[in-house]
Specification:
Elements lengths: L5 H9 L2 H4 E6 L2 E11 L2 E4 L4 E4 L3 E4 L3 E10 L7 E8 L3 E6 L2 E7 L11 E3 L8 E9 L2 H9 L5 E4 L2 E8 H16 L6 H15 L8 H20 L13 E3 L9 H21 L5 E3 L2 H10 L1 H12 L9 E3 L29 H10 L2
Helix pairs in contact: 4-5, 4-6, 5-6, 7-8, 7-9, 8-9
Amino acid sequence: MPTINRRVLSNLIELIKPYISESVVSLDNWRIRRGKYDGEGKFTVYPGEEDFKVGSGWHGGYDDAAWFSCECDVPVCSQGEKLYFNMNFGGETIIRFDGEIIGSVSSKLHNGWVCRENIPLPEKYEGKHIKIEAESGICCGGFCDDAMAGAKETYYDAVSSGILRVNKLCEDYYYKVRTLFDSVELIYDKVIAERIYRAVDESVHVLRFDFTREDFLDSVKPAFDVLNKHLGELPDYHPGKVIMCGHSHIDVAWLWTVKESERKAVRTFANTLELMDEYPEYKFAQSQAVLYDMVKKYAPDIFSRIKEKVKSGQIRRKDRHQLRGGLPVYVLGDLRVVVRLQIDVPNVFVALGQHQLHRRLHGV
């Protein structure tokens, strides 16, 4: 029987998420050091180091830094699985394994803007004993209102940290049915929309929610087969082509200090490079040359990886990290966004045509 109430089906889809991953290593005990970021990759480190446990808290203000460190043995994945590193200590954090930046995490705790608690754990670390260092700072955007009211610091609780084992098929299935379900209301052709809804509905009802974890995971492939069968029966109809490209526009001086932008740039580029390695077809555009200079000074290893993506001669990698400049970010936006233009984004609503051509030609 079809699911008439779409909210019910949406809730069923969300019930898939707990089956995607399970904890295989809990990292409850850490050491913490504190300091201040001075800019261009340099820190003032305060003396002393303390024990720190998940469930404890830490505090900080603009340009403050906290380093959390521990060691662990990384398990080995079976076929069809991968590992994620999980951390939610609040704020924004660069993660290093044995000194190498592997990505960054962020939290929505205390008005944090973005929640990204899990990052892929590179395969080369499987089966090894590693040292983990997490370099944390506050979420300055979320802290700004409190700072303007007079606050000097904010406080975060350490919620979780560890290593998760991920079932890749279950993860792929969840994101596919979630995306299809969310797209139904946006599809102009209502016949096609209803057929996609029916495909998702029938597929999800193949899943064995009421049994063991193993039983549920065994039911994911049959559910995927039902979904793909229905999708394969849809007419081959392409009214247009949508090209999507990853992009980052970091306000160099807005709700935080310029020094904080250096750390934000490294966190952003580290995650982008990890996504490029995992998804060869992924492309990224970055419009601010100053951020490359910041990354070069703060994290030369990340800058070297960026150059590899730019200079690679392989066709599918040739322009993976696209250098941009001169093209206004807000040119296609509503006129009301003019009030939010920053100094690195030209106001295309008042500039002369010759000026715009000059910016496009020279990328400035």
